[in-house]
Amino acid sequence: MYKKILITLENGPADATIIPHIAELAGNFGSEILLLHVTDGFAARCFDQLKLTESEEIKEDRAYLEKVAEKFRAKKLSVTTLLAMGDPPAEILKIAAEEKCDLIAMTSHGHRFFGDLFHGSTITKVRHDTNIPLLILRAKKI
Fold first, then answer.
1. What's the confidence (pLDDT) of residue 56?
2. pTM score, two decimals?
3. Please, is 101 exposed, middle or buried when counting C-beta atoms within 10 Å of its C-beta (0-12, 13-18, 19+)?
């Protein structure tokens, strides 16, 4: 059913909610996993235009993706990583389509109106602009 699952990671505590769910789902379906983190700081958004070198944040994000990938590989699951730079919703949509993903898995923080105004809502933007099924889990409060 799901040949390729895209997991969006934040490099934060919310990721602990989605990782075990997708590990089990991918194991049951024999799915390939694509771990994606979108770095969206100034250096990331201007990386190509200004021909910048990787910031410490970008290096840490790349190492984090590999650390999470090892957890999936330890379970004998097929996993690749991708660190994108720019606007998170736009990058998620672009990569999910390019990589022919069958499912996009994300965590929600449960913001309400004002929280979304201040923090934005990546999920809202993604869900309105994709036909790919979404699995959204509310992040556990830590």
1. 79
2. 0.85
3. buried
Dihedral of CA atoms 71, 27, 78, 67 in degrees, nearest 10, equals -10
Nearest CA among 37, 123, 14, 118 for reference residue 83: 37
Q: What is the CA 11 to chain-centroid distance, rounded?
A: 9
Residue ranges of domains in the chain: 4-138
DSSP one-letter string for 96-128: HHHTT-SEEEEEE----HHHHHHH--HHHHHHH
CATH number of 4-138: 3.40.50.620
Cross-strand bridge partners of residue 138 = 108
User: Would you call 85 exposed, middle or buried from its count of C-beta atoms within 10 A (0-12, 13-18, 19+)?
Assistant: buried
Q: What does the pLDDT look like over 76-108, one tens digit per residue?
A: 999 999 999 888 999 999 999 999 999 999 998
| Residue 20 tokens, joined | 């075990």
Name the β-bridge partners of 136: 106
CA dist., res. 138 & res. 98, Å (int):
26
